[in-house]
Amino acid sequence: MGKYVLKRLLVAIPTFFGITILVFIISCLAPGSPLELLLADPMATEADRAVLEHQMGLDDPIVVQYFRWLGNMLRGNLGTSYRTNLPVSQMVLERLGPTLLLTVISTVIAILIAVPLGIMSAYKPYSAWDYISSGLSFVGASTPTFFTGLILIYVFSVKLGILPMGGMYDSGTRSILSLMKHLILPAAVLAIFNIGSILRQTRGSMLEVFQEDFIRTARAKGLKERIVIIKHGLRNALIPVVTVLSTMIPFLFGGAVVAEQVFGWPGLGNLMVQSINARDYPAIMGITVVIAVAVLIGNVVVDIVYGFLDPKIREKR
Amino acid sequence: MSNEILEVKGLKTVFTGKKGKVTAVDKISFSVEKGKCLCIVGESGCGKSITSLSILRLIPKTTGTIEEGEILFDGVDILKLDEDGIRKIRGNKISMIFQDSMTGLNPVMTIGKQVIEAIKVHSPNIDKKELEKKALSILTDVGIPEPAKRMKEYPHQLSGGMRQRVMIAMALSAGNNELLIADEPTTALDVTIQAQILKLMNNLKNENNTSIILITHDMGVVAEMADYVMVMYAGKEMEYADAKSLFESPLHPYTSGLLKSIPKLSTNPNEELFTISGSVPSLTDMPKGCRFSTRCSETCKKCFEKEPPLFDLNGHKVRCWKYEERTNGR
């Protein structure tokens, strides 16, 4: 198992460098130079512009620019934001915690709700319960997060007034209770969006596993139905469910961008939108790299979970 | 008649598919005596396995149902038990060896865990060390080399024959085995292992007075194991007799056909082997009269018009019009 984990980690390294190259090239190709924004002053001359371009290193060849950026980044220096003049690493670090909190909590909620419901659907397929849960999960998965977000705000904040509209803490406090109150709505929005696909996958793979001969063997042993379903069924059914989860990881961050905007959650997504609007290249690149690394780590975690679930994967790779 | 551990009366198992209802097992009756072995013989798809699955109520609920009949085990109708009641019989008083060893074991659980689980369900008070010891000795009994090492392995690391033996071990581990149902237990195994397994089953029969239902299409195995034989064809019992009289004087044309199709060493190698011509009729498209009429070489007019009942000739039962007069005369 240790060797397997190490291998997964090593494979992630070239992927990481690939991502940095892509991010850098895309940001270079993007229209609009940061110089134009900084030199919004109509009095600025062509000479001023050249001086600034040289100061920022923008006149160097693109390869040089890339390696300078990469070298700095590996030392933890993501550059200085054009917009705020603060170190990007500091800005990103401040925002990373809230985003991770939001995505992890919402995923955990989604799994805890979707997996048991999926099992119930599979156990009695085509029953009334199956249709209800499938219908609701489709609605959840096909409604855009900003819309669910607005509805939840309208119901729970405006009409009922029991939950805050946005932000992360009540003013003047940093208590856990206040944090949890603020977390409920955005986490619910992301969870509602993800429950659908996890539920459908759990249902589908449980249905398939129920047909397997080893389920019949387990029943023939005289095991309780609950044990047959959980111990013999679920463990086998979870393998494809984990696959779905792994494909969801990047979209989780994407979904978080929208949810953070709607709820004013001080996360990476929020910072990303601000930075893009300001063409704040160092910040955009820094955030993208951090999200990419988060996705990479997520995938490694998924691979490790795979290894736990499936003994064949553990030894083959 | 208290000597009978299992009595099946008029069992009818039906599957519902897209094309409508299909009767896989059509009102068959048989019984198994204590400490005796009943062999169920027949071609693929004749309902042998469905019969055995019906006894433990393991027919998948979504597609199949037992529509009619009684299955009396120790005088209690299994079909009337609740889930908990049947669960206490499964793997305890009646255990089963399945045919599909390749897919019958859970791929994500070690062999040891799966065997131990089978022992533990019905004797939850045994401590862990004792369980492991017991599992180890059962695996040794079924001829698994290096059982201690194998217990830590997963099904995909074992060969097909070894997996089959693990399945057998799990069935044999049942605490109070009164009836063992074995669905082609040795088909995937080579002859030496087959002999070992059959011997093991015979020991179980002789020492613990366990009854056995053995499903097979290997007449050699039948000759070795059976006290009684039931020949099935297209969901019905065609002939049902004690092994000796069945082998010495098979009555049904199908049975004699089956016996004739066994190649013998004495046969001239250039001679073509005997085969029963044609194939089993589809369950959705049964012939009107006798089910075997389409392939039978001894048919008369009646065979195509009306299905024969099971004629009883001094305990040797046969479903064929040829014997109508012999029973009527008596």
Automatic annotation (TrEMBL), chain A:
<dbReference type="Pfam" id="PF00528">
    <property type="entry name" value="BPD_transp_1"/>
</dbReference>
<keyword id="KW-0812">Transmembrane</keyword>
<keyword id="KW-1133">Transmembrane helix</keyword>
<feature type="transmembrane region" description="Helical">
    <location>
        <begin position="176"/>
        <end position="196"/>
    </location>
</feature>
<keyword id="KW-0472">Membrane</keyword>
<dbReference type="GO" id="GO:0055085">
    <property type="term" value="P:transmembrane transport"/>
</dbReference>
<protein>
    <submittedName>
        <fullName>ABC transporter permease</fullName>
    </submittedName>
</protein>
<feature type="transmembrane region" description="Helical">
    <location>
        <begin position="9"/>
        <end position="32"/>
    </location>
</feature>
<feature type="domain" description="ABC transmembrane type-1">
    <location>
        <begin position="96"/>
        <end position="302"/>
    </location>
</feature>
<dbReference type="InterPro" id="IPR045621">
    <property type="entry name" value="BPD_transp_1_N"/>
</dbReference>
<feature type="transmembrane region" description="Helical">
    <location>
        <begin position="100"/>
        <end position="123"/>
    </location>
</feature>
<feature type="transmembrane region" description="Helical">
    <location>
        <begin position="283"/>
        <end position="309"/>
    </location>
</feature>
<dbReference type="Pfam" id="PF19300">
    <property type="entry name" value="BPD_transp_1_N"/>
</dbReference>
<comment type="similarity">
    <text>Belongs to the binding-protein-dependent transport system permease family.</text>
</comment>
<dbReference type="InterPro" id="IPR035906">
    <property type="entry name" value="MetI-like_sf"/>
</dbReference>
<dbReference type="InterPro" id="IPR000515">
    <property type="entry name" value="MetI-like"/>
</dbReference>
<feature type="transmembrane region" description="Helical">
    <location>
        <begin position="237"/>
        <end position="263"/>
    </location>
</feature>
<keyword id="KW-1003">Cell membrane</keyword>
<dbReference type="GO" id="GO:0005886">
    <property type="term" value="C:plasma membrane"/>
</dbReference>
<keyword id="KW-0813">Transport</keyword>
<feature type="transmembrane region" description="Helical">
    <location>
        <begin position="135"/>
        <end position="156"/>
    </location>
</feature>
Automatic annotation (TrEMBL), chain B:
<keyword id="KW-0067">ATP-binding</keyword>
<dbReference type="GO" id="GO:0005886">
    <property type="term" value="C:plasma membrane"/>
</dbReference>
<dbReference type="InterPro" id="IPR050388">
    <property type="entry name" value="ABC_Ni/Peptide_Import"/>
</dbReference>
<protein>
    <submittedName>
        <fullName>ABC transporter ATP-binding protein</fullName>
    </submittedName>
</protein>
<keyword id="KW-0547">Nucleotide-binding</keyword>
<dbReference type="GO" id="GO:0015833">
    <property type="term" value="P:peptide transport"/>
</dbReference>
<dbReference type="InterPro" id="IPR003439">
    <property type="entry name" value="ABC_transporter-like_ATP-bd"/>
</dbReference>
<dbReference type="Pfam" id="PF08352">
    <property type="entry name" value="oligo_HPY"/>
</dbReference>
<comment type="similarity">
    <text>Belongs to the ABC transporter superfamily.</text>
</comment>
<keyword id="KW-0813">Transport</keyword>
<keyword id="KW-1003">Cell membrane</keyword>
<dbReference type="InterPro" id="IPR013563">
    <property type="entry name" value="Oligopep_ABC_C"/>
</dbReference>
<dbReference type="InterPro" id="IPR017871">
    <property type="entry name" value="ABC_transporter-like_CS"/>
</dbReference>
<dbReference type="Pfam" id="PF00005">
    <property type="entry name" value="ABC_tran"/>
</dbReference>
<dbReference type="GO" id="GO:0016887">
    <property type="term" value="F:ATP hydrolysis activity"/>
</dbReference>
<keyword id="KW-0472">Membrane</keyword>
<dbReference type="InterPro" id="IPR003593">
    <property type="entry name" value="AAA+_ATPase"/>
</dbReference>
<feature type="domain" description="ABC transporter">
    <location>
        <begin position="6"/>
        <end position="259"/>
    </location>
</feature>
<dbReference type="GO" id="GO:0005524">
    <property type="term" value="F:ATP binding"/>
</dbReference>
<dbReference type="InterPro" id="IPR027417">
    <property type="entry name" value="P-loop_NTPase"/>
</dbReference>
